[in-house]
Design brief:
By secondary structure, this protein is an alpha+beta fold.
Length: 800
């Protein structure tokens, strides 16, 4: 009986399947879509208004295309990172059709075989897994196409929104199809691309701080998700080889058809397609110019500044012999910024200050940039204005003159920022060594240059450089020169790289510059000058002058006095980033990106004299005299006024709602101590000191830190600042010794020095010092150390 039932069910299932397949084959696309609105294009699609569905017409020939997802409408939180206009993953895709099923496949482009041997290519394709992104039911067909209901996938979380919300601890969310619809207004088909969009609502329990700050309802957030189907570029594009010193990013993959003995890694630079109409002519128009479109939502005068900064690149292309090859326009009102045909510059709002970035849609096969997409955070300009107000107000009495100077500085930064992010969408990487060579690149992170005038006032007239630097033009030459009619491109590229050496241009990028442990003496963020230590000394002097003249006159009469802290913070921390630059001389190492045929004679530690001068200057950043908030300023740092909100941009403290100037000083000092006592830096010092005893050892660094905060102890009995700085320094030393990254020999050396300091404290008659000595003894004996010595973190710094 059970066998009979099983056979009966199997027969019914088979008949149903055959019936569905026959129905699909007999159901023509023309008949099925007769009442739908049709959009013909690269992928033709149909809108069924009655059911709010999109049907996609898929060719049966399994053609490949680029599948790009994006986020046209964002969450508005810099911390969560789901911004308006954010690009998702770029995929090489195709549809695989079998019976009444169509699978959207993402092909694996990381592993290839660049050969005419089809069997060899197949062996690699079959060895590394592709991915099926979604399976669709075929609802109709004709000789060349099948029709699928694309709606379920369009309403799904293709952008990874739920995962991002979970990663940032905002809550568990999932897309709710009952609260989601297709969005016809931004769904269009063109000859070489098709664009589909949906309004998708994510439902969950919004428990995180950031989602509650920005969402209308933290339990249901409605975003827009966008899908782009892009025709593959033709084979006329010529990839250009990557070189570590080219200044470009690398687009890489493994070629399993590479001859034995040769590298399997293939690296191209990402770049736009650009060729002269007449490649032999010294000046020629481009066959097709690179055109960027600016978000019309950017307000004036920001819009004009963004256009001006973007057009700096025009000069660079002109010097390569192109006429009008790089253009910047305002995006037409009827254009969609997510449309793959437009390179765009978007002005993006968030609840808090955040990063700007330049992203691209890149052909995974060749590195060709198909679409550049710049995201510029709108609140950064307001932070620049606060910095300018804090610096200039004490020295400019005329209100209109002050307003003009502040505005001028902020717009200069906007121009530079626009050029910087567009540079990324041209394929160009950061160069964090450019600031040391007369601000040679817009691809560095610039700090406003503050100049002291002969009259004893400050000037920001040269806060930011204007136009491209010499490095930018050299990088453009590598990536975008048209070598038609010249010797081999490899020879020409080598000449460009050789010219960089002749010009004494340095290139050091993110991996070497960003870490707190960074060793390169030229690779810094938000710095100025060829000598970071001298610049730190100068900037500390400027800071003291500004703090001495700091006044509540920086506020308008109708503003709450508590808003003064927002201006005070960046002034008080004016030396913050130059400290990060100067510390790289301590335990620093000179090097560059070497090739096998290079000599590495310059691969040496920073000289002993320079390291000692860096240590001397860094110690000034933890001295009480430099960190004490002037009494007249302390009087104006009042609690937040009723009706105002506390800000993440303000200092935290240990006095509740009352601003805590002692904790401000401790936080600033701890920033420097973190840098000086970085475990990798200390490990380098051990080895460098062994080779050259004039280079500071970790013992010397600890000893001089202790002396700096302990020298004035006679005055500390009634001075909480001196007391706190001593505790902060000892806490930093203990923290460094506990660090897992510290080498065994470095830890032993530092523990021995800490024993000396503990003994010195224990010999004092001060009860406070005796308690510190007791806590140090507990740490040295059993590893216990009170958590209350840890100071508050600094307010957010980057980006500026």
């Amino acid at each position: 009986m059970q066998s009979f039932l099983s056979k009966t069910l199997l027969l019914i299932t088979l008949l149903v399947s055959l019936s569905a397949l026959a129905k699909t084959e007999n159901n023509s696309i023309e008949a099925f879509t007769s009442s739908f609105e049709e959009q013909q294009g690269f992928f033709t699609f149909y809108h069924d208004k009655a059911t709010s569905k999109f049907y996609l017409e898929v060719p049966k020939d399994s053609r490949q295309f680029i599948f790009q997802t994006s986020l046209p409408w964002g969450l508005g939180s810099n911390d969560v990172g789901l911004d308006r206009g954010q690009l998702g993953e770029t995929r090489l895709s195709s549809f695989h059709i079998e019976g009444n099923r169509a699978l959207l496949v993402q092909h694996n482009t990381e592993f290839r075989a660049q050969t005419r041997n089809q069997a060899e290519r197949d062996s690699v394709n079959q060895a590394f897994a592709d991915a099926v992104l979604y399976g669709f039911e075929v609802v109709a067909s004709n000789d060349k196409h099948v029709l699928i209901d694309y709606t379920p996938y369009l309403l799904s979380d293709v952008h990874g929104v739920s995962k991002r919300l979970q990663q940032t601890e905002q809550g568990q969310f999932k897309a709710d199809p009952n609260r989601s619809v297709v969005y016809p207004e931004r769904s269009k088909a063109f000859v070489e691309n098709t664009e589909l969009e949906a309004k998708v609502t994510f439902v969950g329990e919004g428990q995180g701080q950031w989602i509650n700050q920005v969402a209308a309802n933290a339990d249901a957030i409605s975003l827009h998700l966008h899908h782009s189907f892009i025709k593959l570029p033709d084979a006329a594009y010529q990839p250009r080889e990557f070189h570590p010193n080219s200044g470009f990013w690398a687009h890489s993959f493994k070629d399993y058809a590479a001859p034995l003995g040769e590298s399997m890694t293939v690296q191209y630079i990402p770049r736009h397609r650009l060729n002269k109409k007449d490649p032999i002519a010294s000046q020629s128009e481009a066959r097709e110019p690179i055109v960027y479109y600016l978000d019309p939502g950017a307000p004036e005068p920001v819009k004009t500044a963004l256009l001006e900064g973007a057009r700096w690149w025009t000069e660079g292309f002109e010097e390569l012999g192109y006429d009008n090859a790089f253009q910047v326009k305002v995006l037409p009102d009827d254009a969609d910024p997510m449309d793959a045909r437009y390179n765009v510059i978007q002005w993006v709002h968030r609840a808090t200050r955040g990063w700007s970035y330049g992203s691209s849609v890149i052909d995974p096969r060749t590195g060709e940039i198909i679409k550049g997409h710049v995201t510029l955070g709108s609140l950064r300009v307001r932070q620049d204005m606060k910095i300018a107000e804090g610096l200039l107000t004490p020295f400019i009495e005329d209100a209109s003159e002050l307003k003009a100077a502040v505005k001028s500085m902020a717009l200069a930064r906007i121009r530079q920022l626009s050029a910087h992010e567009i540079g990324h969408t041209l394929g160009i990487a950061h160069n964090f060594a450019a600031s040391t060579t007369d601000r040679a690149s817009v691809m560095d992170y610039p700090h406003p240059l503050v100049n002291l005038t002969t009259e004893g006032t400050l000037s920001l007239n040269n806060a930011y450089a204007e136009g491209l630097g010499i490095w930018d033009k050299q990088v453009l030459a590598y990536g975008y020169s048209d070598f038609g009619g010249m010797p081999s491109s490899s020879e020409q590229l080598a000449r460009i790289l050789e010219k960089n050496k002749t010009l004494n241009l340095h290139f050091i990028s993110d991996r070497d510059a960003r870490p707190a442990s960074g060793a390169h003496p030229l690779a810094h963020l938000w710095d100025n000058g060829s000598d970071p230590v001298t610049e730190l000394e100068r900037l500390l002097s400027v800071r003291q002058q500004v703090l001495g003249s700091f006044s509540k006159d920086m506020l308008q009469p109708e503003q709450p006095l508590s808003q003064l802290q927002a201006i005070f913070v960046p002034v008080y921390l004016l030396h913050r980033y130059q400290t990060e630059a100067a510390v790289k001389w301590l335990g620093g190492v000179n090097y560059r990106y070497y090739m096998a045929n290079d000599t590495a004679d310059d691969y040496q530690p920073v000289g002993a004299a320079r390291q000692q001068s860096a240590l001397k200057q860094l110690l000034k950043t933890i001295q009480a005299d430099n960190l004490r908030v002037p009494s007249h300023v302390k009087q104006w740092l009042v609690p937040v006024a009723y009706g105002q909100n506390s800000s993440r941009e303000d200092f935290d403290g240990k006095m509740g709602l009352i601003p805590d100037t002692v904790s401000m000083a401790a936080s600033a000092a701890d920033h420097s101590l973190h840098l000086m006592l970085n475990s990798q830096r200390l490990n380098r010092l051990v080895q460098q000191h062994a080779d050259n005893e004039r280079i500071p050892s970790p013992t010397q660094v600890m000893s001089e830190i202790f002396s700096t905060v302990f020298n004035d102890w006679e005055n500390a009995t009634n001075d909480p600042l001196l007391q706190r700085l001593l505790m902060t320094a000892l806490n930093a030393e203990v923290r460094a010794i506990k660090s897992a990254g510290l080498a065994a020999e470095t830890r032993l050396m530092m523990r021995a020095e800490l024993v000396k300091q503990q003994q010195q404290l224990a010999e004092s008659s001060s009860l406070l010092l005796q308690q510190l000595a007791h806590d140090l003894e507990s740490f040295l004996t059993d590893g216990k150390w009170p958590e209350q010595y840890e100071p508050e973190a600094l307010p957010p710094g980057s980006p500026i």
